[in-house]
Amino acid sequence: MEQSRAVQNRTTNVLVFEIDRQRYGLLASDVREVLRSVTLVPMPRAPSIVEGLINVRGTVVPVLDIRARFRLPPKPAEPTDHLIVSMVGKRLVAIRVDHALEMISLSAGEIEDAAKIVSGPGCVAGVAKLPDGLVLVHDPATFLSEAESEEIVRFMAPLGPAEESS
Fold first, then answer.
1. Is residue 140 part of a domain?
2. Count of domains in the chain?
3. DSSP strand E in 89-159: where?
4. Which of 65, 100, 133, 137 is close enough to 51 for a disulfide, judged by CB 3.0 to 4.6 Å?
């Protein structure tokens, strides 16, 4: 079985973030930037995964509600929240988290391939084994279902083209 991107490299950088006192991670290569929370513009009839919209240097970016994806209770946006800007497919998105904690560098031995732990497709690329506990490292390329991705593309089309990945 092919290994995930998280375990292919000798050293991997992971952005660790927190939601509801639980730690999660994204590969640094998937993170465009981290922003302080701003006011989200709610959109009527937006896909349920879209919490609102923000403007990132002239680009309208949907903010994804991943609390529901992790089966966590909803929480209103707070000024202390962070937004992690990332590419999901060809679309620039932001993910609202409670706190972006730190960028860590991990060796291949510190990340377990998710395929060895869970079966079937999923958004988990690997499991980071840290001295103070485990962190699920997510792959935003598989975070949304194909139907959700298409729904976001259709919803966002009148608001401007998707940003091309670099």
1. yes
2. 1
3. 91-97, 99-107, 111-113, 124-130, 133-138
4. 65
For residue 110, give the 3-state DSSP assignment.
Answer: helix
What is the distance, to the nearest Å, from the Cα of residue 39 to the centroid of all Cα atoms in its chain? 19
Specify the pTM. Answer: 0.82
User: Mind listing the pLDDT tens digit for each residue in 110-145?
Assistant: 888 776 766 655 667 788 888 888 898 888 877 677
Amino acid at 160: G
Which residue range(s) make up the domain with 23? 5-159
Could you read off the pLDDT of 14-33 as tens digits, one per residue?
999 999 999 999 999 999 99
Specify whether the CB–CB gap between 102 and 22 falls below 8 A: no
Instruction: Classify residue 27 by burial, with Cβ atoms within 10 Å: 0-12, 13-18, 19+.
Output: buried
Contact call for residues 148 and 89 (beta carbons, < 8 A): no
b/e sequence 98-130, b meaning 16+ C-beta within 10 Å: bebbeebebebebbbbbbeeeeeeebbbbbbee
Domain assignment of residue 166, yes or no: no
Does a structural domain hold residue 164?
no
CATH number of the domain encompassing residue 36: 2.40.50.180
Is 109 within a domain? Answer: yes
